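Worked example 3. Consider a protein that binds zinc ion.
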Amino acid sequence: MSRERLYLFDTTLRDGAQTNGVDFTLSDKQAIAHMLDDLGIDYVEAGYPGANPIDSSFFSERRKLRGKLTAFGMTRRPGRSASNDPGLVALLDAQADAICFVAKSWDYHVRVALETTEEENLASIRDSVRAAKAKGREVLLDCEHFFDGYKAKPAYALACAQAAYEEGARWVVLCDTNGGALPHEVERVVAEVCKKIPGDHVGIHAHNDTEQAVANSFAAVRAGARQIQGTLNGLGERCGNANLTSIIPTLKLKSEYSEKFDIGITDEKLHGLRRVSHALDEILNRAPDRHAPYVGESAFATKAGIHASAIVKEPATYEHVAPERVGNRRKLLVSDQSGRSNVLAELDRIGLKVDKNDHRVVRLLDEVKEREAIGYAYEAADASFELLARRMLGSVPKFFDVSYFDVKVEQRGQNGGAEVLTTAVVKVKVGDEMLINAAEGNGPVNALDVALRKDLGKYQKYIEGLQLTDYRVRILNGGTGAVTRVLIESKDETGEHWTTIGVSSNIIDASFQALMDSIVYKLVKSGAPA
Ligand SMILES: [Zn+2]
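Given these inputs, the predicted complex is written out as structure tokens:
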């Protein structure tokens, strides 16, 4: 059976740029556009030329993409001609393959927001589409508030869409701009639109205000639409846009869609989806959402022992798709709730061969339970668990010893001129060599980290690529008083991330344990000799 082509349109760099707290620089935009293009997205909407200097400069140069680079902007203003509207002229001059216009399709908005007549709005749509076509651009029309408009006055909403289609727009995109539409409504309205405009010219642009943007996108596809607009990681104004990071694997891995449709993303690119999702978080300096479907750290994590023993025997018992397909992995959480099967599976993943009846496995499990009772959380700290396991199985060399450390935080000067300085001194014994390192930092943990990693003698070359990427502190209220739990996330030159943990009544001590684990983990991973 031949499959129909379904197109993906990404608006991370336009709608996604409206997310609270997101500010893309020009080089961020370039990097993300290339990343999306490499993934296999058909349309990359990169911004609104004329609206801000970054977007204008992005579109001032020709950029070669495999897919279609798309510029966003408004249709001509009411009462002006196309050539006499500076906004439209700037948009037509943008170096883009396609232009996506946004236009009102709700009569109420035409009257109140645009303060014009329904006829003038239709004329504006026609003129703008015609002008962009004359410039050789592919044209899309985003029909703003289409679903509300359709509920209020179906004939007019439809007339807006038809005006663009008849004038030669490649796509008419039905937008649920305020995100309030529900899947059954979307399915009904899109089906009605597709009676007038062929579905392979109809797109959906859904927002997530009822947390159904992904469901609404699929409802539209079921009703005949053949283009989905969305963003990476569901970025977007308010509650976000339809999340392409969830839509893509669903289209590829669920037979309901994969048997009917082809998309521009190959199986091989799908393997890189988790990496792409995390790369965007990295650019935004955000921690990835652990619970994100398909790509999150916890998307294929199992905690309870009974599920774990089944999952080891037959992964399909608990997994709706194979995690490897999207570049994720199965994770059996080792925690005080876990049974022996979690621990064995985790040891197997790490590559530690042990017999399942080995008494050391039981000891390791007891150790995990005891430590978790005092505040450790190994399910969040895979590298510390690996070290604990390797130590109990006797395979972690004693690389170095820290015999002393001292951290000093002092205020110098007073009031307006006061400065807070932090210094740390660490004495490390590597083999027969005693090394004394001192460093300044922007806080006690930073100073300690810099001092510890300044000179590790013969091991220095193994930790050169080590970087701390996240530091999290939680104060836990145990029975005997507060304890501090520190989680440190690190990465290295290979791009691998790992998390280590420290627990103590003293925050510096807890941080130091987590730092030490991170360094030792890196040495083990790099195969540093004892
Ligand atoms: Zn939008």
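Take a moment to read the result before moving on. The mean pLDDT is 92. Residues 487 and 501 are 5 Å apart (CA to CA).
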